[in-house]
Amino acid sequence: MTSEQNQSVYSDATQAKGEAVIELTDVDKFFGDFQALADINMNIGAQEVIVVIGPSGSGKSTLIRCINRLEKHDRGTIVVDGIELSDDIKNIQEIRRETGMVFQSFNLFPHLTVIDNITLAPRQVRHESKDSAEETAMQLLERVGIPEQARKFPGQLSGGQQQRVAIARSLAMKPKVMLFDEPTSALDPEMIKEVLDVMIELAEGGMTMIVVTHEMGFARAVADRVVFMADGYIVEVGTPEHFFTNPQEERTKLFLSQIL
Amino acid sequence: MTVVAPAPPRETSLDWVKRNLFRNWWSGLITVILLPLSLYLGYRALRFFFVTGQWDAVRVNLTLFMQGTFPRDEQWRLISQIVIFALAFGIGLGTNSAASHDRADDAGLEIENGSIAGTLARMWSLVAFIALLLFFATTDDVGDFINPFLVVGGAIVAAAIGYQARRLPRRFRNVGWVLTMTFLVIGFQVVSGFDAGGWVPLSIVYGSVAFGAVPVERFDSTWVRLLLRLVALAVVVFAIRAIYAAVDSPGIGWDVWSGLHLTLMVSAIAIVLAFPLGLLLALARRSTLPALRVMATVYIEVIRGVPLITLLFMGQFILGFLLPAGTVLSAVSRAIAVMTLFSAAYMAEIVRGGLQALPRGQTEAGQAMGMAPPTIMRRIILPQALTAVIPAMVGQFIALFKDSSLLSIIAILEFLGVRKIIHAQADFRSIGFAETLVFVAIGYWAFAFAMSRESQRLERRLRVTR
After folding, report:
1. Sheet holding A233-238, edge to edge
2. B119-152 confidence digits (pLDDT tens)
3. Are A152 and B369 a contacting pair at CB < 8 A?
4. Which has the least CB within 10 A, B36, B207, B260, B326?
5. Is A72 on the interface with B (CB under 8 A)?
6. Burial grade of B51 (CB within 10 A; 0-12, 13-18, 19 or more)
């Protein structure tokens, strides 16, 4: 299967309906000789929730890590909120401030309390005053349901609580887009729900989200579009309904048959 | 009906001996060989200490060991300095522990509670050393006699005062640090006279110390913060300049300090200076700028490949050529410079190890929120990396402290070097060599052991609050 077929068949589905917040055009990414992303063309509209699925090594994580420049793409253009990603550090910083990211392994700062984890970036980057940053932080903790843990250290919390703090920490920068890199993969099964609930609430609140996940239930319930990736290509894009009930590509069918 | 398991039979002392000393034939053999040997060595050591040892060489020269050849009439200056430093140390300690207690309380964590008795028990090697001093002291050495008590008492009282800083509102917290700094500055000036550097630098010193109380972070404007930081930097530079003028002044500055006093000062100063330098070197070695990286790497590898004693000699004989003509540096200043530069190279490698051990995700989390690389380094990476390498760093500090004895080879009369004057005295020209050496060894051990114990505690405490 070539990328041209790919584009011709699905060019409609890769375009956002409204105004695009993120535009990826002909994006390629290599790790040495290995092509991690190939001919990625995709628009993501405001308030849209995109769920990216695919086998491991298919480039899902690389895709969202390119959007905030944790990885540098080799070809093509990435435009976030009207700003094109370039080597200019100012551009990169600006885009990173607009995009929050939640990691598989939480990446909370273990030496800081929960509230300090959340207020660090607003205070350092946006130069908010301590009081106002802490007020925002408490509101966010309220929203993710753990205000009573504010003065604890990450090591004292359960995995689910840590991931919810990580989400609050990203939200504290008031991002326009949230990127989730397998946010529930490192969690014990009984904690997955509490994190997904927060994400669902976030989606219902109108946040633009790109979520890499293996949680098909979440994809079905929340996603506006589901993106299936394999070997660095976008193989198929569609609404959850179309995607889960009537997939077109053999590769997609094979994948779905393996996981469902 | 519940069945109660019979309690295991109580272990008799005979069982203990059997289990620990004669478990099988080879452990029995080792016991049979080592037990008499250690008993014999212990007997010889005690006999040397209490019966055969000619301790007069130590007893008579106790003041010389402690404060060296400093003019007798001016001795109160050194005594005051040590006491004032003890106050500074105590207040710093108290403030620090108050802060970490608050954080732990907030997080609902149990934290090891320090008591005075506990501290003394932890520092038992120093207590034992003081007891040894008392054992040797004669009524002539009133200074030495009183000094340890003033120091220990002062440090404890000051720590208690610092700890009370908990009761202050948090934004006045750095009052504790300001007091610490003030005492440090006064400590140096008490030796050199309060106008050694002239009044202008002097007022700047105290100004800068007071400046430490300004909560820079609380100003909202970036420019105001930048300006305040620049002012702070400038006053720190002037403060160091003024302190240096004070300590390097001829006649009473550190060139005429000697004995244990000099050993402690030289090690403390070299440790304090080597730490930031090593940190900068470690960062430079990881820099993305090739020139910086290569320079740091070359520096570190060259210094680490050369023996300290070689560098000390080079410091005495070659450093002069490298400095601008007319610069006068006392022998002690050169030695401190060399020890600082030497330790910094090792410190850099230790810090680098800590930096490398941190998972990449920490940096990425900072980046993803748009934080600038220096901020990520300062707020996220360094606090964790430095905590992780505390044991290695204290190990390096202890090595530096012990290595300061090499200064005796370049004719600086520190703790070990004082023996040269003692055995030049007519009374001790041919006796007491072993005794003075043992005394010096005990002194070094007491401090090194205390440092190592303190680092273990620090490590435990930092692990709790993370």
Report:
1. A99-102, A177-181, A208-212, A49-53, A225-230, A233-238
2. 778 889 988 988 888 888 776 655 555 666 777 7
3. no
4. B326
5. no
6. exposed
Predicted confidence pLDDT, tens digits, chain A (260 residues): 444 444 434 445 777 767 789 999 999 999 999 999 999 999 999 999 999 999 988 999 999 999 999 999 999 999 999 899 998 888 899 999 999 999 999 999 998 999 999 999 999 998 888 889 999 999 999 999 999 999 999 999 999 999 999 999 999 999 999 999 999 999 999 999 999 999 999 999 999 999 999 999 999 999 999 999 999 999 999 999 988 998 989 999 999 988 87
- The C-alpha of A18 sits at a distance from chain B's nearest C-alpha, in angstroms, of 26
Q: Which domains does chain B have, with CATH numbers?
A: 254-466 (1.10.3720.10)
Q: Sign of the C-alpha dihedral, residues B52, B57, B63, B67?
A: negative
Closest CA to A89 of B376, B373, B380, B360: B373
Give the integer Cα–Cα distance in Å for A95 and A98: 5
From CA A198, how far away is CA A215, in angstroms rounded? 14
Residue B428's contacts (CB-CB under 8 Å, 6 or more residues apart) are B56, B57, B60, B61, B422, B436
Longest dimension (CA), chain B: 96
* Residue A39, pLDDT score: 93
What angle is formed at CA B192 by the lines to CA B137 and CA B154, rounded to 5 degrees?
50
Do A111 and B387 count as a contact with CB atoms less than 8 A apart?
A: yes
Query: Which residues from chain A sit within 8 angstroms of residue B110, using beta carbons?
Result: none
Residues of A in contact with B466 (CB under 8 A): 110-111, 153, 155
What number of other Cβ atoms are within 10 A of residue B320's Cβ? Answer: 13
| B202-207 contacts, C-beta under 8 A, 24 or more apart | B202/B242, B204/B235, B204/B238, B204/B239, B204/B242, B205/B238, B205/B239, B205/B242, B205/B243, B206/B182, B207/B235
Closest CA to A113 of B237, B100, B182, B301: B100
B368 to chain A: which residues are within 8 Å by CB? 68, 70, 96, 99-101, 103, 170, 179
pLDDT digits (tens, 9 = 90+) for B366-422: 999 999 999 999 999 999 999 889 889 999 999 999 999 999 999 889 999 999 999
Let me know if A57 is exposed, middle or buried by CB neighbors in 10 A (0-12, 13-18, 19+). Answer: middle
Coil/strand/helix, residue A53: strand
